[in-house]
Amino acid sequence: MQKVKMHGLVGDLWPNIRLMQMTGHWLLEYHEETGGMVRLMRMAFCWFTTLIVFTQFAFITCFLILETYDADQMAAATITTLFFLHSVTKFMYFALRSKYFYRTLSAWNQMNSHPLFAESNARHRATALARMRKLLMIIGSGTIFSVLAWTTVTFLDDPHRQITDPENANETITVEKPMLMVDAWYPWDAKYGMTYFMSFIYQLYWLFISLSHANLLDILFCSFVLFACEQLKHLKEILQPLMELSAALDSVVPNSGDLFRASSTASNIPLIGNDGNEFDVRGIYSNQRDFSGFQPGIAALPSNGGGVGPNGLTKKQELMVRSAIKYWVERHKHVVKFVTSIGDCYGSALLLHMLTSTVTLTLLAYQATKIEGVDVYASTVIGYLVYTLGQVFVFCIHGNELIEESSSVMEAAYSCHWYDGSEEAKTFVQIVCQQCQKSLTVSGAKFFTVSLDLFASVLGAVVTYFMVLVQLK
């Protein structure tokens, strides 16, 4: 069997990717084994999951249409339908637009760090990985707890319910309902015997899979944004030492061909210190203000263009510093492209998510006005409310962090001592400020920007629609 090498961001996201594959997402790449029969089995599992998800959602929709006779029951069924609409749309959305996700996943796999700043890059990548895994554990634990709580509440609820008599709208009748997690219409009797047991197992599996589908895709979005934020922190962190290094450059600009070759082969360029030995670039970065290794060396390089120049740097050291400047500019361009790719992946899905959540929260607010005590109804409404708010907030808080980090890059450029640097350093700062004039954002199909302002707007819309519902009764 052929092994797929996991590296870069895909390697960092391997736990999340693996869980997406285990829950039936149409993520057929990044498997360790790629045999023909194995691939067919994976496709069969994805089709089976698709059938399970859409069939149960259809049963829930049929219940909303066929078996709701009064406003309260219809509102409760509508909330349930809208709640699971997230899972269905995101599952289908990922299947239809998986190529955009593959493109984003592979965006950083071939990126190399500059040897001067390898330690900073590795540290921020490790920080991003730790935050990704922490988020996965928190939301994953919340998903499991939600399924267990949902199942437990089912057996605490009254097995009978009052509904409006279909033959007489002025009277109510008491009917027995099956003890299942979600009200749904089935073409079989799901109240007793083996059909009830099979329906219960079917709903339990579907409930876990549906919540996992939506949450894992949300975690993937947050992981992308976290990775971009840590890359921006890395770029901000190396600005000051980069300015100090570039201050030693003279006004002579090297041949552009030499500069580009230096950028691609920088990892092979030795740095010669005052003692004539190669410099440890990690030691240079660990003490950002100690750049004594770039002072005139005792042992000069061979005379074929490698001697000490008027600025006290050897030719190779000059190319190293200039390649570091080019590295910063190119890395920031890649961050911008990466964030744009995130928007391409999630744009329409974010729009549908926010629209659906706004309607769901409005109906939940209306249902919350009917809470009369601490009972199953109250816990169910509050559970729906907290879960839905959490889904919206997790997008907005990470989108807001991206905006803040990208905005602070220009501030970091202004705060470094660029005015003491060379002409090349000043030009570099101008390029930085020009690139960072507009904050990096993720939009919902260009209708809104994902941020805490969006969260406030959603809450404001919910309050407005809730007041309309109260007035209409």
Helix and strand pattern? HHHHHHEEHHHHHHHH
What does the largest sheet look like?
Answer: 2 strands, antiparallel
SS class: mainly alpha
Q: How do the strands line up in the largest sheet?
A: 1-2
Tell me the overall shape. Answer: elongated
First-last Cα distance = 64 Å
Number of helices: 14
What's the SSE blueprint?
Layout (H helix, E strand, L loop, with lengths): L7 H5 L1 H9 L13 H31 L4 H26 L1 H8 L12 H39 L3 E6 L2 E9 L16 H45 L1 H8 L9 H9 L16 H6 L28 H54 L7 H40 L7 H13 L16 H21 L1
Antiparallel strand pairs: 1-2
Helix pairs in contact: 2-7, 3-4, 3-7, 4-7, 4-11, 5-11, 6-7, 6-12, 7-11, 7-12, 8-11, 9-11, 11-12, 11-13, 11-14, 12-14
Subcellular location: Cell membrane
Membrane topology: Multi-pass membrane protein
Organism: Rhodnius prolixus
Descriptive key words:
single chain, 473 residues, mainly alpha, two-stranded antiparallel sheet, 14 helices, 2 strands, 3% strand, disordered N terminus
Descriptive report:
It is a single chain. The chain has 14 helices and 2 strands, in the order ααααααββαααααααα. By secondary structure, the protein is mostly helical. It has one domain (15-253, 313-472). Strands 1-2 form a two-stranded antiparallel ribbon. Helix 5 (98-105) crosses helix 11 (315-368), helix 11 (315-368) packs antiparallel against helix 12 (376-415) and helix 11 packs parallel to helix 13 (423-435). It is elongated. The termini are far apart. It is a multi-pass membrane protein. Keywords: Behavior, Cell membrane, Glycoprotein, Membrane, Olfaction, Receptor, Sensory transduction, Transducer, Transmembrane, Transmembrane helix. It is found in: Cell membrane. It comes from Rhodnius prolixus.
